[in-house]
Request: fold
Amino acid sequence: MEKFKKVKELVSQIEADADKFYNKANSAAGTRVRKGMQDLKVLATEIRKEVTDKKNSK
Reply:
């Protein structure tokens, strides 16, 4: 459940940079959005693995 909380925090952080990129044309914010999305992907993969392991261990 701790990793799921991290996902929520990460999405909140990315949201501010996404606003800067899309609405204010800040290209540096776009780089941060891309990095944040990559981190989100890695975290989601870890969560999927944990869920699968827990489900199969029953």
User: Anything to note?
Assistant: Residues 2-49 form one domain. Helices lie at 2-24, 27-56. The longest helix spans residues 27-56.
